Amino acid sequence: MRMHQKAVLLALLAMPGGVWAMGKGHPDPGSCPSDVGAALAARCPCDGQKNHGQYMSCVVHFRNSLRKAGCLSVEERRSIARCAARSTCGKLDAVLCCTSTTGTCSDPTPGDGTKAGVCSNDRALACDTAADCTETKAGLAHDDATCTQGGGTPAGQGSVCVACTTTTTTTSSTTTTTVP
Known about the structure:
The protein is α+β, with helices and mostly antiparallel strands. The protein has five helices and seven strands, in the order H-H-H-H-E-E-E-E-H-E-E-E. It has a three-stranded antiparallel beta sheet. Strands 2-3 form a two-stranded antiparallel ribbon.
């Protein structure tokens, strides 16, 4: 997923800091929420749905209201539906499951602080050590045990689009989980 798409999703699926007032669940024509993520979370709470289909229906109706009001670009509309579909919302016991893989780095002098190599798992990524080549992905698992058995780390509830964000340095790797 491109950085622009991730930024849009972080904004769209972030936990609310405030709530957007919407009469009958639809924005006023020409009026867009200042915090789309808060508006989406308020209108379609992840834990307030009977099943995943009900959650998706809510998200699609809300997204269409925003589209009619001119609040979203085509890519933002697609991202909302794609990320909602790949979420745990309305799925009993489902969890986000984070898995990491580390490639090798071709840097001729690893650890010198200069990224003179490329990663074996991403030729476009410059690296100094193998730690720079760590790639973390989120997926859905039926439950914590299934995730762990598959070599992953359970990361709670939410969407794969904003989970398991990895920040690397030449000495360590950290994982943060954002739950919509």
